[in-house]
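Lecture notes, part 5. Sequence design as translation. It can be helpful to think of inverse folding as translation between two languages: the language of shapes and the language of residues. The source text, in structure tokens, appears below.
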């Protein structure tokens, strides 16, 4: 089935524009039909075996206003990703779906420690996912599409295996791994709990992104920057808590004051991996409102932060990168030039070597010039 097409005013297809995906969870991007087939093979009970109804169930469950409740949907997706066959198939289809959405480079993040219940080793899970990625890339090439994919190996912040997972990531850096991530329940599980892992990664020069500023605020972001040496912030939307917007005088002129954390993130061009639909679902923007118009995305963009647009979990949010860009365009009046800025921001923030980042930027520019 072809993905839904999203258009800018003037009829420009967002789907056809070259895009970069930085924050996209493997276990959050399964096709409902694949879940049903894999669950049947292992005897795992689902809420429904109707493909359409199952997709709607995930969207409804995820739309809770709580990150903790949102994360419970992953009990099902992870359950069907415990074998080589399951992991490889999900990874291959993941790449195929990115290609269909116009993505030319993607970083897929996932937590190997959550895929060991049927006897796989950590290394076997990484190899299985890489096999699926390579199969997806090869299928895309045969169809005339070019895409590159890198793995972000994720450790769960509520667990105590982060050093082991960091070592796993470094071990596979020549086999598809481009960086490391910490994810899971944020509040109450600070980055400094994983300082040994971050120290190891720093010594190995493996780039790090950290989920921060989603379910917790500025202290979590501070921890990601100080303890994690994060080059990107996973979501990071609550950096807006460190920004004061006020009225300066009787003429209603406004002023903006950045606190020290926001100033650092902006001035150092640390990318924000913003995921608009997900941020609404998990309550990450509750301090500002419950509508996309309330999202601080536009404030951060106008102030010069390196904002990027992401899906987070395409299944749970019933979304795609094209849809997220369309939603932002509708909410804030963005045009094709704005969308190009977001993609160039993402190109510069990838965990690729400089030369490859420049090649991505050139591809973005060429693709947008062609519309």
């Amino acid at each position: 089935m072809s993905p839904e097409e999203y258009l800018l005013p003037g009829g420009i297809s967002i789907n056809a524009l070259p895009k970069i995906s930085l924050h996209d969870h493997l276990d959050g991007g399964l096709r409902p039909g694949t879940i049903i087939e894999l669950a049947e093979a292992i005897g795992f009970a689902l809420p429904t075996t109707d493909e359409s109804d199952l997709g709607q169930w995930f969207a409804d469950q995820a739309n809770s206003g709580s990150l903790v409740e949102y994360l419970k949907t992953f009990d099902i997706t992870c359950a069907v990703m415990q074998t080589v066959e399951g992991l490889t198939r999900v990874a291959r289809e993941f790449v195929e779906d990115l290609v269909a959405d116009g993505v030319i480079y993607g970083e897929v993040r996932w937590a190997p420690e959550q895929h060991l219940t049927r006897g796989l080793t950590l290394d076997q899970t990484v190899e299985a996912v890489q096999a699926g990625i390579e199969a997806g890339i090869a299928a895309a090439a045969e169809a005339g599409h070019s895409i590159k994919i890198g793995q972000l190996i994720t450790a769960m912040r509520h667990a105590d295996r982060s050093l082991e997972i960091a070592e796993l990531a470094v071990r596979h850096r020549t086999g598809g791994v481009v960086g490391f991530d910490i994810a899971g329940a944020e509040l109450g599980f600070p980055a400094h709990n994983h300082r040994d892992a971050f120290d190891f990664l720093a010594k190995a020069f493996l780039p790090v992104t950290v989920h921060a500023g989603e379910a917790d605020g500025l202290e979590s972001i501070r921890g990601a920057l100080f303890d994690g040496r994060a080059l990107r912030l996973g979501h990071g939307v609550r950096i807006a808590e460190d920004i004061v917007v006020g009225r300066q005088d009787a003429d209603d002129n406004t002023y903006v004051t950045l606190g020290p954390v926001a100033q650092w993130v902006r001035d150092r061009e640390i990318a924000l991996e913003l995921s608009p639909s997900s941020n609404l679902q998990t309550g990450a923007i509750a301090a500002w409102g419950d509508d996309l118009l309330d999202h601080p995305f536009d404030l951060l963009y106008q102030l010069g932060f390196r904002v990027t647009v992401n899906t987070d979990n395409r299944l749970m949010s019933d979304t795609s990168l094209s849809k997220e860009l369309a939603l932002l365009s509708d909410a804030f009046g963005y045009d094709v030039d704005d969308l190009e800025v977001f993609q160039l921001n993402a190109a510069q923030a990838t965990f690729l070597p400089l030369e490859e980042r420049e090649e991505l930027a050139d591809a973005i520019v060429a693709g947008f010039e062609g519309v």
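The translated text above is only one of many valid answers, since several sequences can fold into similar shapes. The chain has a mean pLDDT of 95.
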